[in-house]
Amino acid sequence: MIENNFDMNSKNSFKLSHFPKLLVKTYTQWISKNPFRLSAVIAYYSILSLPALLIIIFNIVGSIWGREIVEDELFSEISSALSAETAESIKQMVTRKGDAPTSVFATILGIAVLIYGATGVFYQLQNALDDIWETKPDYSNEIIATLIGRLKSFGFILIFGFLLMISSVLTSLLSAFAKHISSQLPSNIIELAFVVDILISLVFIYFLFAAMFKFLPSKPVRWKSVKVGAALTSFLFVVGKYALAFYFGKAEPGSTYGAAGSIILIMLWVYYSSLILFFGAQFTKTYSDRYRSQQ
User: What predicted TM-score, i.e. pTM, was given to this entire model?
Assistant: First the structure.
């Protein structure tokens, strides 16, 4: 009866007292969508997509900001989240081997395969979010639906690259500024710069989740719901990021698998992160259904 009243009073605007019930309902619906299966699918496709995805990001963002700077920024994040060994393994995945000349046809085919591989994980994310929103692409032709989905996924690679570039620029400027004034100002000011650096990363994550929740599902999602859902997801993601880094550092789950340990760590990180992302997406839907009349 309480839950029914909670659902039916949709004309009420959001109140902090509603939050626990929203979380309970979100959890119930999240579990019913089998997020563990969806997360396993995303983890699998992330391994297949990762080399191509990084190569595209390095070339697009690197052409503007500098490939070496972008590589250092990304591999530094991977190293802190997983391990230096895993970062090195990923680096070896995307290292170009040889500069042998190729034909125009081979080059075009190579680019097409690269884009197709890179968009795989975002395409699967779109399908997973459509499951959460209980919708599907509004295209009668399956081929057209797939092409539109891949194009949308490629757009997210560009969004990711753009946000990464902004984050890298701001982080680099902040780091240079902190280094320049470190000898002239007290240590608490330097600590403030560190906090600002974390906030920059949080903003980057927030906008990335907001873009996913707004544009990846086939069903239109209102910005008010997206903003609330992305905020919660960003908070959970940052907490989960440090929790996973601590867990991987202490338990070393990848060490059991020997040479494949780095791959296992990547899949575990994506798997756990996907669980958080899908919970945030489900919260966004629950919030949207609950307060749709106010949006």
Answer: 0.76
CA 106 to chain centre: 32
CB 210 within 8 A of CB 203: no
- The tokens of 9 are what? 């009073």
Amino acid, res. 113: V
Q: For residues 196 and 153, what is the distance between their CA atoms, to the nearest angstrom?
A: 31
How remote is the C-alpha of 290 from its chain's centroid? 26
Using alpha carbons only, what angle is made at residue 102 by residues 96 and 103, rounded to the nearest 5 degrees? 150
DSSP H helical ranges for the chain: 2-8, 19-32, 35-61, 67-81, 84-93, 104-118, 120-133, 142-181, 187-215, 223-251, 261-290
Angstrom distance (rounded) from CA 174 to CA 97: 35
**Contact (CB, 8 A) for 166 and 65:** no
CA angle (100 as vertex; 99, 104 as ends), nearest 5 = 110
Burial grade of 66 (CB within 10 A; 0-12, 13-18, 19 or more): middle
What's the CA gap between 267 and 158, in Å, rounded? 23
Give SS3 for 222.
coil
**137 contacts 148 by C-beta, under 8 angstroms:** yes
Cα dihedral sign for 88, 92, 94, 99?
positive
What's the CA gap between 219 and 215, in Å, rounded? 9
DSSP type of residue 218? S
Residue-wise pLDDT tens digits, 33-46: 889 998 998 888 88
pLDDT in tens, 224-254: 889 999 999 999 988 888 888 777 777 666 6
Residues whose CB falls within 8 Å of the CB of residue 288, separated by 6 or more in sequence, listed in order? 221, 222, 225, 295
